[in-house]
């Protein structure tokens, strides 16, 4: 018996340290946003989950079916791959991610099967929260140096003070959502029994809320408010809700004071000074929260006790919350920060409305299976309804919808609804609020592009999905199959199928993940290699290990001779047939070889797929002007004429695009410098094609709108004689 207890304690301690380390490491690695950081981790997870599942069979314990729910999304990405994806690499990466999420959830389910494991899991979660929150705060105060841990902008629409906390995720909105998650976990802990747990929550809540306010993330703050209401109703018992409201209001006020001073210290170029106010507010709230808490034992009397009881009634707590929240808002609004930034400014909402409308048009064209991973990045140029810049769709739900179609979206909803049903049946009251923050904010931003956020959410869910049923029985959700009255066939199925599925997944996908990791390493080494030959060799190595990856292919192409470049790039279209980047590079390669028809074909396709890419539009027209001049100098007058006509055609389509886009509105085509380069180069193309009369009005517009250099070039072309 003692041996078993020691073994279980060792297992819980080792698991606690391991899960805490993984969550902290995942946060530190930019939240595992980039696939290159994930490959090795994915392979390790797949193997570990398979081994753990086989060990569970030896112990006679069945893995619950809910632990395999993320594999439904992996299967949806597999279907998108078979249906012909927009990007083979993007789809493969997404499939690997969801396999890894399934492996992670399976490991968490096995670990949280017993009460000791769940307790250790909660400790790991709190350790990860401290690391995330204080890591970000340390970066704000200048104690640690981490790339882009503080986001800086002079645009008041993006930051009222010029600085926002971005944290290890390097993105303020996602950082705010995670900070809100941890803040809700801590706030719920205040209402739970246990002095040590209450004290920990009391001293940790204000720093978490301060980190949230420093991000200036309006979406995360609104998500916290909505999810906070869920937590109040679900996690706090009726008699404790007044205390919960009062504690929330006081925490918000203390965090607002700390954030106000932190913003001021940052503006004064002395960010470290803000720590003193944060320490004072943390101590003040901890004292207030513990004093307001009802004492155990006989009810005390006296003036203070009567005041405490009044403040922690439902109405008293609501009044404290309302007063404190109002003061907190006024503090931030008067001193910059999130309050002032929240006053209006609907540009972000308007831009995202465009994203969402364009995403729905993508879905309409591929409604069943979607277009695979990275659909938005690959096809946004084709579907975008205006000249915006949007590398992300800014909605996790829409990303799943356009990636995997109705099939994948149904799998996502089935997973989340299935989790909710199980949690409801088990009476897991603490799970809802923190999970709601992540799920709500993912609807308006690209949080789910961070693997860290999925790992965090799934781990939190696993700690509650593993709870026993409502009856007060020992916490053993992975109950022994041997102890149940089940048939032999059912026992074999429940034991073997989940483990065999994880084993098959590890065998099938760990090897590709390792190859992709090797490719990422070769590509990274190429960035610092000396000499073109060494770089080219490393790019080729990356290409061998991950053939669908077009980035090393594109960079290697710049090091190849012109006559080899086109063949090398053509292979990229096998894996991304609608890639504007590959078509553009291939068209330019043909232009370098003097092959006008092929260059025109691929560049026309590139601009069809990214028609609002002004830099590419200008560069294509300039390239044909240069090519036409080159062919003329070589004595190929017909080739020069064809190149010139191609350049004129690109210019006319460019002009027509803006005429349609701005019909009935102020068109930037005239009266701005944005298109002067295109007009001058198009005029040069027209002259070389023998259509000088068309060039004259374009050159006159350039004389009117261009700077001195463009005016000089336009004047020279106007003064030149036909050759």
Note down, in words, how this protein is organized.
The protein is mainly α. It folds into four domains: about 35-110 and about 350-525, no CATH class; about 120-345, no CATH class; about 535-610, Serine Threonine Protein Phosphatase 5, Tetratricopeptide repeat (Alpha Horseshoe); about 630-723, no CATH class. The protein has 30 helices and two strands. The chain has helices at about 1-30, 40-60, 70-85, 90-110, 115-140, 170-190, 195-215, 220-235, 240-265, 275-290, 305-310, 315-335, 340, 345-365, 375-385, 395-425, 430-440, 450-465, 490-530, 530-545, 550-555, 560-570, 570-575, 580-590, 595-610, 615-635, 635-660, 675-690, 690-705, 710-720, and strands at about 150, 165. Strands 1-2 form a two-stranded antiparallel ribbon. The longest helix is centred in the last third of the chain and has 41 residues, at about 490-530. The radius of gyration is 30 Å and the shape is globular.
Précis, in short:
The chain is mainly alpha-helical and 723 residues long.
Structural class: mainly alpha
In terms of per-residue confidence, which ranges show pLDDT below 50 for 5 or more consecutive residues? 337-345, 472-483
Structure annotation, total helices: 30
Quote the beta fraction. Answer: under 5%
User: Rounded to an integer, what's the Rg over CA atoms?
Assistant: 30 Å
Shape: globular
**Widest beta sheet: strand line-up:** 1-2
The figure for the number of domains is 4
Task: Sketch the major β-sheet.
Answer: 2 strands, antiparallel
Query: How many β-strand stretches?
Result: 2
Overall pLDDT metric: 90
Q: Considering DSSP H and I runs of 4 or more, what fraction of the residues is helical?
A: over 70%
Alpha-carbon distance between the two ends? 100 Å
């Amino acid at each position: 018996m003692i041996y078993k207890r020691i073994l279980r304690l060792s297992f819980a301690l080792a698991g606690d340290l391991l899960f805490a380390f993984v969550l902290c490491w995942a946060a530190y690695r930019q939240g595992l946003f980039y696939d290159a950081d994930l490959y090795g981790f994915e392979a390790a997870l797949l193997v570990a989950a398979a081994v753990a599942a086989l060990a569970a069979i030896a112990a006679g314990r069945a893995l619950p079916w809910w632990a395999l729910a993320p594999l439904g999304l992996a299967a949806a990405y597999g279907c998108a791959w078979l249906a012909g994806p927009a990007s083979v690499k993007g789809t493969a990466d997404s499939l690997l991610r969801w396999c890894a999420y399934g492996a992670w959830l399976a490991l968490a389910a096995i670990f949280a099967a017993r009460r000791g494991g769940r307790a250790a899991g909660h400790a790991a979660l709190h350790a990860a929260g401290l690391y995330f929150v204080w890591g970000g705060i340390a970066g704000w105060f200048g104690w640690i140096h981490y790339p882009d841990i503080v986001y800086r902008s002079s645009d008041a629409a993006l930051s009222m003070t010029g600085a926002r906390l971005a944290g290890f995720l390097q993105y303020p909105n996602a950082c705010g959502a995670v900070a809100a998650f941890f803040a809700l976990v801590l706030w719920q802990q205040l209402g739970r029994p246990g002095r040590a747990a209450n004290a920990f929550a009391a001293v940790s809540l204000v720093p978490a809320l301060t980190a949230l306010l420093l991000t200036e993330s309006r979406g995360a703050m609104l998500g916290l408010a909505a999810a906070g209401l869920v937590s109040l109703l679900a996690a706090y018992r009726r008699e404790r809700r007044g205390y919960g409201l009062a504690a929330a209001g006081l925490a918000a006020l203390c965090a607002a004071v700390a954030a106000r001073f932190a913003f001021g210290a940052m503006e004064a170029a002395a960010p470290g000074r803000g720590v003193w106010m944060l320490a004072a507010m943390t101590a003040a709230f901890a004292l207030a929260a513990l004093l307001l808490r009802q004492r155990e034992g006989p009810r005390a009397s006296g003036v203070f006790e009567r005041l405490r009881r009044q403040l922690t009634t439902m109405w008293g707590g609501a009044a404290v919350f309302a007063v404190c929240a109002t003061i907190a808002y006024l503090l931030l609004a008067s001193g910059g920060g999130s309050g002032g930034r929240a006053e209006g400014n609907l540009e972000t909402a308007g831009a995202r409305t465009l994203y969402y409308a364009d995403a729905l048009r993508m879905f309409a064209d591929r409604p069943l299976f979607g277009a695979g991973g990275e659909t938005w990045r690959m096809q946004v140029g084709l579907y975008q309804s205006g000249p915006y810049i949007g590398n992300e769709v800014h909605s996790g739900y829409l990303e799943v919808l356009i990636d995997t179609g109705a099939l994948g979206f149904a799998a996502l909803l089935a997973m989340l609804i299935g989790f909710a049903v199980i949690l409801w049946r088990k009476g897991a009251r603490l799970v809802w609020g923190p999970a709601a923050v992540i799920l709500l904010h993912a609807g308006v931003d690209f949080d789910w592009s961070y693997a860290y956020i999925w790992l965090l959410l799934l781990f939190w869910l696993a700690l509650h999905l593993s709870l026993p049923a409502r009856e007060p029985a020992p916490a053993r959700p992975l109950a022994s199959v041997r102890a149940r009255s089940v048939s032999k066939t059912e026992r074999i199925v429940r034991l073997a199928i989940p483990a065999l599925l994880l084993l098959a997944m590890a065998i099938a996908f760990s090897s590709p993940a390792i190859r992709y990791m090797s490719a990422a390493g070769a590509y990274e080494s190429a960035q610092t290699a000396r000499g073109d030959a060494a770089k080219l060799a490393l790019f080729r190595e990356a290409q061998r290990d991950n053939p669908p990856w077009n980035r090393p292919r594109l960079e290697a192409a710049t090091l190849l001779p012109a006559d080899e470049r086109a063949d090398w790039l053509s292979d990229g279209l096998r894996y991304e047939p609608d890639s504007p980047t590959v078509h553009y590079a291939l068209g330019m390669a043909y232009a370098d070889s003097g092959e006008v028809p092929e260059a025109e074909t691929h560049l026309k396709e590139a601009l069809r797929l990214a028609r609002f890419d002004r830099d590419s539009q200008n560069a294509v027209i300039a390239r044909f002007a240069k090519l036409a001049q080159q062919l003329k100098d070589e004595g190929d007058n017909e080739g020069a004429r064809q190149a010139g006509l191609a350049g004129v055609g690109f210019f006319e389509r460019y002009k027509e695009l803006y005429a349609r886009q701005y019909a009935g509105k102020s068109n930037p085509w005239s009266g701005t410098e944005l298109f002067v380069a295109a007009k001058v180069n198009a005029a040069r193309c027209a002259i070389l094609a023998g259509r000088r009369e068309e060039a004259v009005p374009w050159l006159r517009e350039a004389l009117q709108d261009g700077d001195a250099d463009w005016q000089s070039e336009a004047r020279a072309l106007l003064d030149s004689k036909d050759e």
